[in-house]
Fold this sequence. Notes:
The protein is an alpha+beta fold. It has helices at residues 68-80, 102-117, 124-131, 138-143, 178-186, 196-205, 208-214, 220-226, 229-239, 261-273; strands spanning 3-21, 27-47, 52-56, 85-91, 146-150, 155-158, 166-171, 216-217, 244-247, 254-258, 279-284.
Amino acid sequence: MNQVELKALAKINLGLDVLGRRENGYHDVRMIMQSIYLYDTVKLTKQKEPGIRVETNLGFLPTGENNIAYKAAKLLIDEFGIDEGIRIRLDKHIPVAAGLAGGSSNAAAVLFGMNRMFGLHLSMEQLKERGVKLGADVPYCIMRGTVLAEGIGEELSVLPPMPKCAVLIAKPPVSVSTKAVYEALDSKEITEHPDIDGIIDGLKAGDLRKIASSMGNVLEDVTIPMHPVIDEIKKEMNAAGALGAMMSGSGPTVFGLFESRAAAKSAQKNIRDRSLAKQVYVTNIHSVRRN
Length: 291
């Protein structure tokens, strides 16, 4: 196998709670992660010449050692003494630095693809162990589906699959620093925690309305005051009939869950017409078949 092409899926957080901060700066979290059918295409090609070459359709992205996909390839090349080179082509469609784990998903695809291409015979668990060295979301991006993430995000438990629904994604034209959001969170007392158990109960019952009504993201209390447009997008989605609308990750992307694709399309048009966001997509939940 000299070439492989993979879909690196985006994720949303149906619930995100922060339980505390560790001495090393990482945070203990309790999150429910869900993959959606919005993806980057990652194409891996073996090269006779040693080395790692990263190409992308976005000129502003780094293609050297600061790119997480590059780091993923280097990790395996160094560990297994791979003497062939690898060319990585990233066609990016997931909004960048948006709380959708685009970079982490690219890294996961590189680990998964190189494992197959070079016959490394790493299990899913072994891939996840290497993924966490690159970023807290990478193990989940290897696993995908509906998952409870604990610890710093690396302790993963499979949950019942999310009911099918339309998902509206809107990324406003603002930049959010995850580091700055967590630093601001550390300086305040968290008084309200999202109902993670309520979401899990909704998943077990296959009850989309219960899931949507239980959703919550503790980071909204920090990010929304910095960028009020996030709240404007949430209100627009709710007015158009979303069962629930929430910021994903540390933001600024907002997602809404809709029973009707037509309602999601209507909200998409309203958000674009009001210039609240340019990157606005209607997509679906992505489910994973487990053995």
